[in-house]
Amino acid sequence: MEEENKNYSLLKDIAFSSGMSLFGVARVDNLKHKIMGISPEIIDSLPFAISLAFRLSDKVIEDIKDHPTQLYLHHYRQVNYLLDRTALLLTDFIQKKGYQALPIPASQVIDWENQKGHLSHKLVAEQAGLGWMGRNNLLITPEWGARVRLVTVLTDFPLKVDKKLERGCGSCKKCIGVCPAGAIKEKREDFDHLACFERLRKFRKEYNIPHYICGICVKACQGPSIEI
Ligand code: B12
Ligand code: SF4
Ligand code: SF4
């Protein structure tokens, strides 16, 4: 156990000194069947998932009114680079220690028809205790609400595992009503992915944004305890 704690602290220090805002670890067992496009024998050999979050710039997010901005587009790209870069640094450190690591891309879609990445960073972050799944279908942190982006590294480096947070949105409903597509509902399970995607497709065309981004539901959520 001492070794797991020590390894955990080493990685956390690297992540924080690389600019990350949150760090947590989950076991991969419960997530295995949700991982796509990676050989089962590779997944079986990597029992831990490290979840990293980077806090977005409040001012960039607050500048978003009713559509994604060019400023947000740049921020989105830079944050993805930093997340991917930090995942690489952790991978390199782990390999130099004689173990294996596999960084999952921050924002790569591998199945366009069903809009899926290799695995859900939100699900990993939830299991690793970074936050919970909110009404807006995003990972909500107690610290900064939805204003974070995420990345994951799978590894066999022995690590202490975090507990899931026993928290939720409670009575907060601030994000319902802000969505221009009407995709956010009372129950997170009713979130309308298709309506959201159609709106992002429109934004892409109307505002010359070469990615499916929006940011309005990210702006709306600073967590349940903070009034906006
Ligand atoms: C493809 C994609 C999209 C697609 C939607 C795909 C989809 N159906 O989810 C589109 C283009 C529409 C999209 C939109 C957005 N995205 Co996007 N997207 C992705 C990407 C690349 C893959 C997601 C994926 O594989 N989804 C597949 C489904 C099955 O997984 P899931 O939605 O996570 O849901 C599962 C779990 O949540 C789990 N679950 C866990 N807990 C619970 C609890 C309950 C009650 C239930 C029912 C289920 C459940 O069950 C679900 C089914 O398996 C991820 C990066 C990644 N690899 O994770 C980013 C990601 C999810 N996107 C992100 C963001 C921020 C956005 C946008 C705000 C756009 C923007 N940047 O401005 C919007 C938000 C829309 C919204 N409110 O959900 C962030 C989320 C950060 C956060 N704080 O949560 C991610 C993680 C990227 C990142 N690196 O940070 N996205
Ligand atoms: S704004 Fe409130 S209801 Fe919506 S996701 Fe955030 S905490 Fe949950
Ligand atoms: S990304 Fe935009 S369209 Fe999609 S749920 Fe959030 S606010 Fe609605």
Topology:
Blueprint: H1 2-17, E1 22-27, H2 40-44, E2 48-55, H3 58-62, H4 70-96, E3 101-104, H5 121-127, E4 132-133, E5 139-140, E6 148-155, H6 193-206, H7 216-220
Antiparallel strand pairs: 1-2, 2-6, 3-6, 4-5
Report on the structure:
The longest helix is centred in the middle third of the chain and has 27 residues, at 70-96. The chain has seven helices and six strands; from the N terminus they run H-E-H-E-H-H-E-H-E-E-E-H-H. The strands form two sheets. The protein has a four-stranded antiparallel beta sheet with strand order 1-2-6-3, sandwiched between helices. Strands 4-5 form a two-stranded antiparallel ribbon. A hairpin with a 5-residue loop joins strand 4 (132-133) and strand 5 (139-140). It is 35% helix and 13% strand. It is globular and about 50 Å long. It starts with a helix and ends in an 8-residue tail after the last helix. The protein has 228 residues and is α+β, with helices and mostly antiparallel strands. The protein has one domain. 41% of the residues are buried. The site of one iron/sulfur cluster has 15 residues, from loops.
